[in-house]
């Protein structure tokens, strides 16, 4: 007899503390053997995908590396660098479209994290902190240089794909168009949407922008609505 | 940080293959540069922070003594203890809430700081009025004490802890440095309130508003300015 339990899982069962407590509960959603012989219980809790587990593991590793670095393990920063530097570069390059500037801002962000090593709070999530510093330095850099975040390309229609090279080109054009449209949004919406596109959860975005999760939900809702308007070319 | 199955962390999408990649040699050079510029260790930071707070406490104590120390009359002793202990508890909770960062490197949310920052002077004021109203004559007008001396004393005494807290939190808040600075100002004002309360026997409401509550507002404004200058994260010039 297979009994499907729907909605009977407790909050602890569905809200896995994967970040802090490892992969406990990763088997949620897999049929479990009930103590009663012959009765299988299939739980309705969603199975964390391999992708999600990997992301949680990366976050834990980053926190652990930063903690080791805080307490004097000099080699831990190299490990941390390997974990976060590619993401940081991707984030900054998407928003600047300038390799040199993205590299420079990435190094400034990491320098800031290095200088704050002794202030690191044990167990704190590195990602919201890192992305927030990067965003802050990015905005500051544009403000100082008197430039605007790049908004060119929003009106360019992508070309029709013909071959593999064209597909790559259209991917790039679509991404440029998306980020150019994001650059036209208000700062708080840009930050929240940019962080969500980088894969941060609502909780992490809330931490990164200093708001509550419910504020983030409505902020992202407004951002996506405005972004859709911008991409469709509808005037405000 | 809970993993919510409806909102799982996701890997960021890769850059298009046409995007330039960072230079690995530059990465290596950067890591070597960091090794040659070691940051403060936990121990060094702890020593510095303890020294800063000790210095601030020393200045406050010295100033309080120089200003005349505790003045009891005409208050009964238990009223002094009641108001001072209550104010000290409120100041301690307020400092914990406004200066602490909980378990996040980015500190508390703007809403939390705003609510705690507004609640602190309100709680201190209500406590003082409630405690003093139980005693006859304690809330009467004092012609010679409009509150300017208390205003000066509170502001000057609050400056030292404010500066110490701002230095401890230097370059630490990329989110809302002005609000964080203002919160530190409120916490410093709450600490100064305790000493001003020991010094000043007047509980006449306009006096309290001018000499005891207004300094917290002034310190919050100073804190906001300090937050902009010291606490925010900026690109090096």
Task: Give a description of the structure.
The complex is a heterodimer of chains A (236) and B (237). Chain A has 10 helices and 3 strands; from the N terminus they run E-H-H-E-E-H-H-H-H-H-H-H-H. With 236 residues, chain A is mainly α. Chain A has a 3-stranded mixed beta sheet, with no helix packed on it. Chain A is globular and about 55 Å long. Residues 1-43 and 153-161 of chain A have low confidence and may be disordered. Chain B has 7 helices and no strands. By secondary structure, chain B is an all-alpha fold. Chain B is elongated, with a radius of gyration of 23 Å. Chains A and B meet through helix 2, helix 3, helix 4, helix 5 and helix 6 of A and helix 1 and helix 2 of B.
Brief account:
The complex is a heterodimer of chains A (236) and B (237). Chain A is mostly helical and 236 residues long. In chain A, 61% of the residues lie in helices and 4% in strands.
- Percent of residues in helices of chain A comes to 55-70%
Uncertain runs of chain A: 1-43, 153-161
Q: Per DSSP, what share of the residues of chain A sits in E-state strands of 2 or more residues?
A: under 5%
Supply Rg of chain B.
23 Å
Q: Using CB atoms under 8 Å apart, which protein chain pair has the greatest interface?
A: A-B, 85 and 55 residues
Please tell me what the overall shape of chain A is.
globular
The SSE order of chain B reads HHHHHHH
Distance between the termini of chain A: 58 Å
Stretches with pLDDT under 50, minimum 5 residues of chain B: none
Assembly state of the chains shown: heterodimer
Please state the structural category of chain B. Answer: mainly alpha
Going across the biggest sheet of chain A, name each strand in turn: 1-3-2
């Amino acid at each position: 007899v297979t009994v499907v339990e729907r909605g009977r899982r407790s909050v602890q069962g569905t809200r896995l503390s994967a970040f802090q407590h490892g992969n406990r509960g990763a088997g949620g959603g897999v049929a479990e053997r009930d103590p009663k012989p012959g009765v299988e219980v299939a739980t309705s809790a969603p199975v964390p995908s391999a992708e999600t587990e990997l992301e949680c593991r990366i976050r834990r590793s980053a926190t652990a590396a930063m903690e080791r670095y805080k307490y004097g393990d000099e080699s831990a920063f190299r490990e941390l660098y390997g974990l976060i530097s590619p993401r940081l570069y991707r984030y900054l390059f998407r928003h600047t479209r300038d390799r040199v500037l993205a590299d420079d801002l990435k190094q400034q962000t990491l320098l800031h994290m290095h200088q704050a090593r002794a202030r690191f709070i044990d167990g704190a999530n590195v990602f919201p902190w890192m992305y927030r510093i990067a965003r802050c330095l990015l905005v500051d850099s544009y403000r100082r240089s008197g430039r605007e975040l790049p908004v060119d390309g929003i009106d360019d229609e992508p070309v029709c794909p013909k071959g593999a090279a064209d597909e790559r080109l259209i991917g790039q054009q679509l991404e440029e168009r998306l980020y150019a449209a994001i650059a036209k949004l208000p700062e708080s919406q840009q930050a929240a949407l940019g962080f969500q596109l980088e894969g941060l959860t609502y909780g992490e975005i809330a931490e990164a922008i200093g708001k509550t999760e419910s504020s983030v939900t409505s902020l992202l809702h407004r951002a996506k609505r405005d972004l859709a308007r911008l991409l469709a070319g509808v005037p405000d | 940080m809970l993993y919510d199955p409806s909102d799982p962390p996701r890997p960021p999408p890769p850059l298009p293959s046409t995007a330039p990649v960072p230079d690995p040699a530059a990465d290596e050079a950067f890591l070597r540069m960091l090794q040659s510029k070691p940051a403060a260790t936990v121990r060094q930071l702890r020593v510095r922070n303890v020294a800063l707070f000790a210095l601030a406490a020393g200045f406050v104590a010295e100033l309080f003594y120089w200003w005349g120390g505790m003045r009891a009359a005409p208050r009964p002793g238990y009223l002094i203890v009641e108001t001072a202990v209550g104010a000290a508890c409120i100041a301690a909770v307020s400092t914990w809430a406004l200066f602490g960062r909980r378990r996040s490197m980015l500190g508390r949310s703007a809403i939390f700081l705003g609510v705690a920052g507004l609640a602190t002077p309100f709680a201190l004021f209500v406590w003082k009025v409630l405690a003093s109203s139980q005693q006859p004559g304690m809330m009467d007008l004092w012609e010679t004490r409009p509150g300017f001396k208390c205003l000066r004393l509170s502001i000057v005494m609050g400056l030292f802890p404010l500066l110490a807290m701002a230095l401890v939190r230097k370059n630490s808040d990329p989110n809302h440095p002005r609000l964080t600075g203002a919160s530190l100002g409120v916490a410093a004002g709450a600490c100064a309130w305790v000493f001003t309360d020991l010094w000043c026997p007047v509980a006449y409401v306009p006096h309290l508003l001018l000499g005891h509550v207004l300094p917290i507002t002034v310190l919050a404004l100073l804190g906001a300015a300090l937050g902009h200058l010291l606490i925010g994260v900026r690109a090096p010039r």
